[in-house]
Write a structure and sequence with these properties.
The complex is a heterotrimer of chains A (356), B (293) and C (274). With 356 residues, chain A is mainly alpha-helical. Helices cover 72% and strands 3% of the residues of chain A. Classes of the chains: A mainly alpha (356), B mainly alpha (293), C alpha/beta (274).
Amino acid sequence: MSDLIWKRSGIALVAVLLLAVPFILENDMLGVAIVCLAYAVAAIGLTVLVGVGGQLSLAHGFFVAVGAYAYTVFGSPKGEHLFGFGLPPLIAAIGAVVVAAFAGLAFSPIARRLGGLYLGMASLALVFIADYVFQRVGALSGGSGGRMVPAFTVGGLQLSGFTKHLWIAGVDFGGMQRLWYLVLIVAVLSAVAALRIVRGRPGQALQLMRDNPAAAAAMGVNIPRAKSGVFVMSSAYAGLAGVLIALQAQTVVPHTFSMTLSLNLLVMIILGGLGSVQGAVVGAVVVNLLPAILDKLGTSGALAFIDPTGVRGMSGGLFSALVFGAAVVLVLIFEPLGLAGLFRRAVRRASITRAG
Amino acid sequence: MLETLLQGLSSSSIYAVLALGFVVIYKGTKVVNLAHGSVMLLGVYVISLLAPRLGFWPGAVIGILVGAAGAVVIQFMTNAVRSKDHLVMTIMTIGINVMIAAELTHEIGDATVFTGDPWGNRSLSIGGSSFPVSRLMALIVGSVLIGVIFAIFRFTQFGVKLRASAVDAETSSLLGISQRSVSIWSWVIGGGLATVGGIFLAAFPANGLDSGSATLAMSAIPAIIIGGMDSAGGAVLGGLIVGCGEAVARRLIPELAPVLGDSFASVVPFILMLAVLLVRPSGLFGSKVVQRV
Amino acid sequence: MMARSLTLQDVSLRFGGISVLDGVSFTVNPGSIHAVIGPNGAGKSSCFNVISGLYRATAGSVHFGDVDLCRLAPHQIAAQGVGRAFQNIALAPHETVLDNLMVARHRLTRAGMISTALALPSARREAAAHRQRVEEIAIFVGLTDVLRAPAGTLSYGWRKKVELARALATEPDILMLDEPVAGMPAGEKMEIAALIRAIRDALGISVVLVEHDMPMVMSLADHITVLDFGRRIADGTPREVMADFHVIQAYLGTTDAPADELADALNQEVADRA
């Protein structure tokens, strides 16, 4: 069987599985799966920024928050103590992405002048300042109790939140099930767009800028503008992810988007392989899926050392944190290209053995 | 006025001690230790376990040693990076931080960590305002430590080696300066300083540390950016600016509270940091980073 | 394409207390091969960096035609038609040679993030057209066979050729080559020398090169500028420069080659050219 047939059938298989997910998973795991794909979109944006563009950002979670809150504020009716614009959900979502992109643009003058480490430190400042703003401006964030997220309806069809019952093949096709398809489409389109960007003119310019700024300038790359551009792109992706996260959670609270989220996003792209779009998706799935699976196994008693309540063992989240922290260290020492690098090596070895 | 000044000075000294820890590690290895807060929490946690049985001072000494040892372990891990790229090593400290933080969160859980320091909640009366003894000790110990570190840098062989390596690692190693030993010792000092900073952070008027307190060490980062990441003097000055800035902000808060809220004081250091980064990225005393393109 | 001269006028460059370039002046005539030579540390690469806009001259000016390059950002200088191949090869090892060359088309193409992401027909047409042009340039340089190979798998000599081709692919009016044959065996050096001549003759592009290989420089260059300690100590045709006492002194003072060996080699090259 030729390489192409292997590849095509692999993709077809994955596609069928993905389409069947709402029929396979229960609501709680389905929610986790949606979160995986939503953060995959954010991770894709971050891997292009950090891996391809060479700009270290420790504040990606901030831009995710911008997207989530902008959607909520745009889409909610004006409340007594809360900001709201009452726009239709589709407009609110697009507006949220635009606002996130603008936030990235606003940060870019700093990004332009700094590089590497200093940029990372500057982005830290963003996290702390944002933390403060979200806490302080209750009219924006609804305080620590959070705000309700308007459901996503398009052309009369509701795609998230609580919907009327709709039975398909024995499954109650509610908001979560419908949201899965929305998120799936968005994730796939985002990935395709990002792959095109990375392989095309913008991506090549960014890579050269990362590896050798002098050579990039000699090729005519306007470096400050390229830096701004990639910041805007990654912030837009983060904002889009924020909208999806908000739709899944149905309530947004500030502490979802803390420094931990930014660090987790970094972990996702390091494990997946810096600069690899496919790696970002895999990294996002692994980092978000493992804690949930561990907790499920822990409550059922299959794993003695996992206990979500933290009494008899670690919670799935804490144990996963240990694993991922160690994985990051190992990846950075042994295989800086992460899972994408490992995969590429395995494929090459397989095609060599097949040819020989 | 006096109270604000003293408050500013004492929190400055805590910031300065933490910042100095960052800077020594950076000078020695060009790595920003983003796991500094976890090392701090680790040291303080060990003290909280040992102090009830051994007394505060023995417990503190052991805790500081444990902090230093933990830092050395981190150094070994970062050193395993083949490319020796400092940015990669810095990112690795993020991963290490995640690990240590997870383990400590598991151990500490919801509890609060106390060091059992001898100053308790006593206060002195200075010039009409009451001032916590622990903060005064922070000021004194901090100043002494800063003095000791400066003396080490200027007068000991190690200090000279460290400064030489910070300026030019390649030439230094050609001159026979062991990069290995410079790296290890700078992490030892950094880890020890982190724990000391933690002891004072945990003391009155704070009420101990909890599993989330590791991020408090991050507040020292504005101090090192403002001062310049490779300047020990800058770290101290940065600590002063940040500490006093925060104290002044807190003083003014009651007037501005309706608009700005109580937690604005902790944001001030970061706003100052962004301002400095815009105008003078290498900090007030840092060596200029030549950005050519 | 108007024929333009590159003129340096009294260019000085100081770093702190160190004077790297001191009042350097020379002119590269259009369609000529101009070599900048000198002992190590003479300031040759710094000269290139000033022209490219990577360093800002402390005094003096650089003009390309009547455009003052000192006021422009590096990418704007590139847009003026100043191309450059770097001494340390700056290729992406995992990308194919073709993709590496395509980066050079950056200043000539316009597709941005959005048009690339949406794969708009305009972006695709642009990419196809430029790919074709890049393949033509690759043929000219002799890279046809390795176009689809990852750049990292090539030998040093081939990678240097790709670096040169990439500079050429920016469609420059003047091409700066920073030690194009460093570390190459004699056969490959001759290939590159022939290529440089072809660039001047067939494409009409001016070439400025920094090079240490004296015989090659003598046989290749139309005009030579000699730097030592940041100052220009000689400027003229190869024959004039070789006869210049200062040049010989500068080289004898800093190389181990016995005086007569050096003089013999130079004389041989003069004889070959005559």
